[in-house]
Design brief:
Length: 374
């Protein structure tokens, strides 16, 4: 993996010992553009900011996406003033619902009880989140087609329309990290057909059909979500006046982030090489939570501040361990390196989504990483 020159320059300019996330505006925007080009014309792209809610990332995407998908009152506040905001989440508080109505957000309503509470606060824009019955999609975090805490059962629709007459559409997010573009296109076709049918039945004119996110990124391998296959699968999709909405998170942010962390020590115990870094899984959580080894590149740093020898190893297989007093704090295992020394910097690409956001930052109170955008 080649570290782009502007990203490498930012890493080299970081404070020592280096521990930094670098995000790249151009990649964020290019990912939006690529996805948009594969979707039917007029589709609204709402960035799911849960994937990376850094203010610099949000600012880079303002005006470039059609809107934002938020999942908490905090996220809603972060995009205050944006014209198109969609609010999901199965446990919205009354304060969340009040703020969503005041902000003019589309509320993706997750239950009948939530719908009743929402209507207390005025004239909301209601999309009914429906957990439809459909075959499971490939990917992770299945949220529809299986029993989950998300959305309404299809059988609850008559009751929902009995409570709220002026629903604006349906929210049908189903899965995360699906790399099978043909299956995802088929899911969207099926979701659109279902929503158009439901809209006709319940008299929802020109509905919003929100098919959510879930466009996958193979962060540690060389698979990919094939946008040509995806576009072919959606060709000539007739939306019959509906507005299609997608909520990509991972696809926009994953490849736009690099996590770089300095090697503090290199050592061998019980016949195994360990490269110990200043950061770890409390900054980039995915290797620990998904149980895989994240690829990295060694950025050599020749400066060495001590008068004594520099620990290092050449031509070896190493584990990259973090700074926590916890043997599970491992970013990479059995990784082949040509050379790595204390003071060098390891750069992990494809770390822009669900890395920092889902990590337990304050475990052990280590200093947080720096954050930069290029
Ligand atoms: C409602 C909703 N929309 C969008 C997303 C974004 O999913 P992804 O990052 O896989 O595109 C999620 C992820 O959990 C979600 O729950």
């Amino acid at each position: 993996m080649v570290v782009p020159p502007d990203v490498a320059a930012a890493i080299i300019a970081a404070d020592r010992p280096v521990c930094v996330y670098v995000y790249d505006r151009a990649t964020l925007r290019a990912n939006v553009d690529a996805l948009r080009a594969a979707l039917p014309p007029g589709t609204k792209v709402a960035y799911a900011m849960k994937a990376n809610g850094d203010d610099r990332v949000i600012d880079a995407l303002r005006g470039h996406v059609d809107g934002f998908e938020v999942a908490s009152g905090g996220e809603l506040a972060a995009v205050a003033g944006e014209p198109f905001v969609l609010f999901s989440g199965p446990a919205k508080t009354d304060a969340d619902l009040r703020a969503a109505v005041a902000a003019g957000a589309v509320v993706n309503v997750e239950s009948l009880h939530e719908l009743r509470r929402l209507l207390v606060y005025g004239q909301p824009k209601v999309c009914l989140r429906v957990n439809r019955t459909h075959p499971a999609l490939p990917g992770t975090h299945a949220m529809a087609g299986v029993p989950t805490a998300f959305g309404l059962d299809e059988s609850a629709l008559p009751a929902a329309f009995g409570i709220a007459g002026d629903v604006v559409g349906f929210h049908l997010h189903a899965v995360s990290n699906n790399l099978d573009a043909a299956a995802h296109a088929a899911f969207i076709r099926d979701a659109v057909a279902w929503a158009l049918d439901a809209a006709a039945r319940w008299d929802v004119p020109a509905p919003i059909i929100n098919v959510g996110g879930g466009f996958g990124v193979d962060i540690a391998g060389d698979g990919r979500f094939d946008l040509d296959v995806f576009a072919a699968g959606l060709r000539d999709l007739d939306l019959a006046g509906a507005t299609l909405v997608v909520e990509p998170g991972r696809f926009v942010a994953a490849t736009a982030g690099w996590y770089a962390t300095e090697v503090i020590d290199v050592k061998r115990t019980h016949g195994r090489w360990f490269v110990v870094v200043r950061g770890g899984t409390h900054h980039f959580r995915l290797p620990a939570s998904w149980g895989y080894s994240h690829p990295f590149t060694v950025l050599p740093v020749d400066a060495w501040p001590y008068p004594f020898d520099r620990p290092g190893v050449t031509g070896a297989t190493v584990d990259v361990a973090g700074e926590q007093c916890n043997p599970r704090d491992v970013l990479a295992r059995d990784a082949a390196v040509a050379s790595v020394r204390a003071g060098d910097v390891l750069v992990f690409a494809n770390t822009g989504a669900y890395g920092w956001e889902v990590a337990h930052h304050d475990f052990l109170r280590h200093t947080h990483p720096q954050f930069m955008i290029v």
